[in-house]
Amino acid sequence: MKTLTMAWFVIATAVLRALPHPRLRAAVLRVLGARVGAGVRVHVCRFINHELGFGNLRLGNGVYIGADCLLDLAAPLEIGDRATLSARCILLTHTDP
Question: Whole-prediction pTM value?
Answer without folding.
Answer: 0.90
